[in-house]
Design a protein that fits this description.
The complex is a heterodimer of chains A (111) and B (111). Chain A has 111 residues and is an all-beta fold. Chain A contains no helices and 11 strands. In chain A, strands 2, 4, 5, 6, 9, 10 and 11 form a 7-stranded mixed sheet that branches. In chain A, a hairpin with a 3-residue loop joins strand 4 and strand 5. In chain B, strands 1, 3, 4, 8, 9 and 10 form a 6-stranded mixed sheet that branches. In chain B, strands 2-7-6-5 form a 4-stranded antiparallel sheet, with no helix packed on it. In chain B, a hairpin with a 6-residue loop joins strand 8 (86-93) and strand 9 (100-101). The chains are: A mainly beta (111), B mainly beta (111). Chain A binds chain B through residues 4, 33, 39-45, 48, 50, 55-56, 59, 91, 93, 98-105, and chain B through 3-6, 32, 34, 36, 41-46, 49, 89, 93, 96-104.
Chain lengths: 111, 111
Amino acid sequence: DAGVIQSPRHEVTEMGQEVTLRCKPISGHNSLFWYRQTMMRGLELLIYFNNNVPIDDSGMPEDRFSAKMPNASFSTLKIQPSEPRDSAVYFCASGRWEPQHFGDGTRLSIL
Amino acid sequence: GESVGLHLPTLSVQEGDNSIINCAYSNSASDYFIWYKQESGKGPQFIIDIRSNMDKRQGQRVTVLLNKTVKHLSLQIAATRPGDSAVYFCAEKPGADGLTFGKGTHLIIQP
């Protein structure tokens, strides 16, 4: 079975540019989560959706970050404008009840 | 000044021995707990979970123990193999919220 699919796997861009990360959850899962992993702060929940509706975005660091889930099979996390401190690995996870299943992440480097 | 990242505790175990990884959680309202394994360059991979109405759950070569009195969780891996080398994270979940992850433990299996 296909797991959670994230793209791109790696992204390197200059500060000030817009960055869009993409996620395809596992079919049939009704919850989708975006996490960020850094050496300084570990794994942090940014936002999660239930049935395509954002439930809790209290982890989103600031207004430069936005996330959408237009349908059950696709979500995006956008950073505009990007800053060097946004460099991290961004993970998407999906689940139907428990447990959550993670993708392999997008490694983002902002120069 | 120099930035300091997370210094993960490291557990080194001889191949074939049993290992125990410990985790303290913070939220007394958490009713679901989960262990993930993360290998380099990959997303967290589900190992085993437990609900707060249980104090022990066994899987294949793994056992999770939950002590709600002292808010402690442990993961026991029996007969460790080289492929068990990874970073292990515990996570807690109060109700319908997203997961809150611990800082992780780096398990090294010595040949």
